[in-house]
Amino acid sequence: MVLVCAFAGRSAYACFNNSRPFMPARRASKPAPRAPDLQHEIGKKKPFDVPEEEAFLNLLRTCSIFTTETGRFFRDYGLTEAQYNALRILRGHAQRVRENRSDVGPDGVPSQTIGEQLVAQVPDVTRLVDRLVDAGLAERARTEEDRRLVIVRITREGLDLLARIDRPILELHRRQLGHMTRADLAELNRLLVLARRGSEGSDPVTDRCPR
How confident is the model at residue 16 (pLDDT cuts 50, 70, 90)? Predict the structure, then answer.
């Protein structure tokens, strides 16, 4: 290098001074470890036959994990998920009545309406309501307009129980899905709605998530 620099009319010092210091080559960073997919989680030796099968089983496994957690949660309050859902329906209707909404009837709903609005359908709504009534969380009454119509209303005990549950159940959901971003959750919700459209017209009772 000194000879080359001198030949070019520059001092060896200038050449060394302007040269870049030796830098060892950087090692390529290793890619982040890939999260195990369903095939590895369940120990399946061969890939799934079709992506629809893998997507369905992913939904089933996720549903099983989350409902196991929520099932334990509601047992601490003496409820099942369906009973909690029914109480939420009754509370929501009572709130609309208190807000003087003109599109709602008396302070209560028929059992059939509860069955239609449940997130996860149950085969016997009457038995579901019976248990809520026996626990003092709901009550049956007849309307003044039509004495043949029996409606179900939430009681003060039912409202108080839901008030105790409101914050803890939100905290549970945040623990379950809080690792996802808002954008991830919005996309997940969009895809789940899209997936359900393929089953429109199926029996909501037999085609629900297993418990």
Answer: very low
